[in-house]
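Quick one:
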Amino acid sequence: MELFDRQKDAVGQGERTLLVYIELPINRHIKNGVDEFVELAKSSGLNIVQSLKISCNSVNAKYFIGSGKVKEIVELVKDMNLDLVILSSELSPSQERNLEKQLECQVMDRTGLILDIFSLRARSFEGKLQVELAQLRHLSTRLVRGWTHLERQKGGIGLRGPGETQLETDKRLISIRIKNIKERLEKVHKQRDLGRKSRLKNDTPMIALAGYTNAGKSTLFNHLTQAEVFAGEQLFATLDATIRRVILPASGEAVIADTVGFIQDLPHDLVAAFRSTLEETRQANILLHIVDASDEYNLEKIKQVEDIISDIGAQKVPSILVMNKIDCLKDFKPRFDRNKDGIIFRVWISAHTGDGVNFLYQALAEKLSGMMTCAKIQLDVSSAHIRSKIYNIGYIRNEEVDDLGQWVLEINVTHHYLFKLLNLRGVTLLWERKLQQK
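Output:
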């Protein structure tokens, strides 16, 4: 058992907490497991009094860890007057109960910790429902017969019989609540599906941001959309899916979706609860995989995100690797990298400073070229405001003025945006052809 340095400054004002990182043969390859576990606990605002690391070669059926290690933790809990012990591995309900009985304090596993963080971060109606659903699913496996004061709740005249124990009542109430939440979420999902179908019908490109938690997705989202989504240097700063319609240089109109950050071994209950949020990733035309370029463990995290993307069925969505936070690297200039086929597959940027975002725009324009059309339009002399609007967007390929003083523009736009332009007074289509995908 290896003790970390005692926390010099209490983190948060919550319960006095002991963190126990369990190193098993299956997770010894994870280089940043300890640091990430500590960051998770800090994100929940707990008062972390002590952290320790335990190496185990096998799992104990009763306590998950060996009984000798349990006795050592019991002494730490008593000496430090601790309220909560959090283990980095997922515990079975019986293991959690057995540890609580021995330690005489609350015990939580990594899944419970992540659920607690999610409950703190959820802001939207849908997000709160999704988190509550995941929490109830997790709780339903951990109900115990702790209600010995009432063996029968229902009895007496007209209701004689074995009655209903408190445990059965709790299970029934949780089951009813889960059913109600699912019904309410289904209505939200239908509304989201209508919006998605509308975008598909209008041929509007969908760009989804995905990546490891705290990689800078929300910062980049705010830069691209001029939105004010909360972005902080903490794990799971953003939970609620946010969608904005934008005009991208050289690409035109598009929809950008910011999604929840991923993490290694993301609990299955959370993946299921955030189905509609993750659906935006699966239905996107382009996936921007945001990576913290300054993170020494970024290669490992890239692999973990790719595994989750594959799990949700989004592995076939065309993607661009966005290496973010280059402002944290010494003397590093923004750029993009092409593969052997000449296709941009990686862009180096800083979402915080905006350096390199123009390279990202270029990469998006090339990726979206299959959804774009090249058109030549004519604007009459009274349509200067339309010409100005198109110039601000910046996807005019060529411009001429005919003998009548009318502007003739050759532009790259989506089919949907071209249709909107042609509905404006003073705009005439001369010809159109679909662009070939790069």
